[in-house]
Amino acid sequence: MKIAPFAKKLRLDIAIPIALLVALAALSYRSIRASSTAATWVRHTNEVMGELSALLLALQDLENGSRGFALAGEGSFLIPYDSGRAGVPEHLEAIERLTVDNAVQQQRVHRLAALVAAEEQIEAELIEVRRRAGAGAAAARVAGGAGLHSMNAIRELIREMQNDEVQLLAARQATADALFRRLTLALAFGVVVVGARMVSDNRRLQRTLVQTRIHQEIAAAHAKQIGVINQELEAFSYSVSHDLRAPLRHVNGYVEMLQRDTAGQLSEKSARYLSTINESSLEMGRLIDDLLAFSRVGRSELKSASVSLDDVVKDAIRGLEMSTRDRRIEWRISPLPRVIGDPALLKQVLANLIDNALKYSRTRDPARIEIGSSGRDGNRASLFVRDNGVGFDMKYVQKLFGVFERLHAAENFEGTGIGLATVRRIITRHGGRVWADGAVNTGATFHFTLELSPNV
Amino acid sequence: MSLRRLLLVEDSPRDAELILDALATQHLANEVVHVRDGAEALDYLFRRGSFAGRSDGEPALMLLDLKMPKVDGMEVLRQIKADVGLRVIPVVMMTSSREEQDLMRSYQLGVNAYVVKPLKFSEFMDAVRQVGAFWAILNESPPGSVQRN
């Protein structure tokens, strides 16, 4: 299928915004995914941080409890010690689980677990010393810095882990932020491009609509004008056919009555004057009739049927019997195709062309008239009518088809000079072409084209 | 030969003279009533105006011109063919040209014949003779028409 340039353009106009929208949608999806992942990571980091802090708190409870008991010997100090110790495994486990995908943190978790275990051991021993050896031994142990070292190492490690998590979070956040910035930019770009496109499309559409409306208005105005002109022509030719003929009829009638009433009384010269007036009135009548017929060919509605040109030619020749009588005519008629057209008008075309051929070959004995098809051009048949008559000079070929144009004196060949003009008008109305070629004294060929009937 | 009265409806005095000449030459009607337009024709047929109270019966044939001032031939034809008493009168429409629309409309209204006035007087004579002969002699005369010998 052939796409009209406008339709092609329309497709591009649709394709570009759609492609842009698809790209924007893909980018948006990625950005939303990234930001949702980032949110998950924030939650995850917060959890890790929280667990680390909770572990530290539990260990501080444990340490404070054991120190308090070591120094004061009060059993109440063992409450925070016990609760701290109870919470430690839970937090450690949570930290290990939360950092399972991070090899570096996992190593630290293992180190942390070892440090925590050592600290627990130190504090447990401190409580044991206080119970067995009393306050002095315990105080000496505390003052000796037992546990201080391990707690500092734990604090240090937890801070390190927390820093790491924060940095990781910052990196992830930065990635999401960058993606979001890219999305924002892309969206802004897309909005600008699509918007600009829509604005220009809209402008173009408006322009096209306005142009279409202008064209429609012009066409409607033309159609109206043509309708008015046709009506005027109709009225004109109606009036011509009635009013112009009446005085002619009177001229002819009164002259004939005068001829009848003065029979034998007029001089030969006067009688000739009268018969000349008579003939002239008849000649003018023929001109009017032919002109009316010609104008009717232009106005009447074109019927469309599948027409056998063989039959049309037979019909036309039968109708020209008057001109063929008493003449030797060599007919060469080849089989002709079926064509699409108005049967009556096509008969007129063939009748006019054959009549023409008969007329201008009158001086030949025998006259030779050839009718045939000279091939086809697409769905059109090219047909011709050829005679061996007096022909014509090709430099006057343009005049052949004009109204009232004649190439021969009326004394030699009668006629009103409208037959070929009618032929051209009919063929043109059928969408065909008419042309002629010939040479003086070697005959003429008239060509015309008609649409072939599809059922052949 | 039975001759009849003929109603000629013709506005052109020249055409009328030609027709009357042709009728006289052909000895077709011994009485021709000539009216000059459609209104007068309707007055005659419906016995109105100057024709009120006429008692000469209906014409055997009407020659009706198409293009006339006031009431044209088509309207006269329409009114005649719509009247039960008058529709039996044969009507020959005579016009200057064979315009398809006039021909179609005349036959739709029930015209009995349609004649294009030929340009050539001798042909015109022939046409009048044929029309006159056909309707005035060969046809049965409509009831109420006066027969003179």
Write a structural description.
The complex is a heterodimer of chains A (456) and B (149). A five-stranded mixed beta sheet of chain A has the order 2-4-5-7-6. In chain A, strands 1-3 form a two-stranded antiparallel ribbon. Chain A has 456 residues and is α+β, with helices and mostly antiparallel strands. In chain A, 70% of the residues lie in helices and 10% in strands. Chain A is built from nine helices and seven strands; from the N terminus they run H-H-H-H-H-E-H-H-E-E-H-E-E-H-E-E. Chain A has helices spanning 5-72, 78-98, 103-143, 148-261, 268-299, 309-319, 321-324, 343-360, 419-429, and strands spanning 305-308, 329-333, 338-341, 367-377, 380-387, 434-439, 443-451. Chain B is α/β, with parallel strands linked by helices and 149 residues long. In chain B, 39% of the residues lie in helices and 16% in strands. Chain B contains five helices and five strands. Chain B has helices at residues 13-26, 38-45, 73-81, 100-108, 121-138; strands at 5-9, 31-35, 61-65, 91-95, 113-116. A five-stranded parallel beta sheet of chain B has the order 2-1-3-4-5, with helices on both faces. Chain B is globular and about 40 Å long. Residues 140-149 of chain B have low confidence and may be disordered. Chain A binds chain B through residues 238, 241-243, 245-246, 248-250, 252-257, 281-282, 285, 292, and chain B through 12, 14-15, 18, 21, 66-67, 95-97, 99, 117-122, 124.
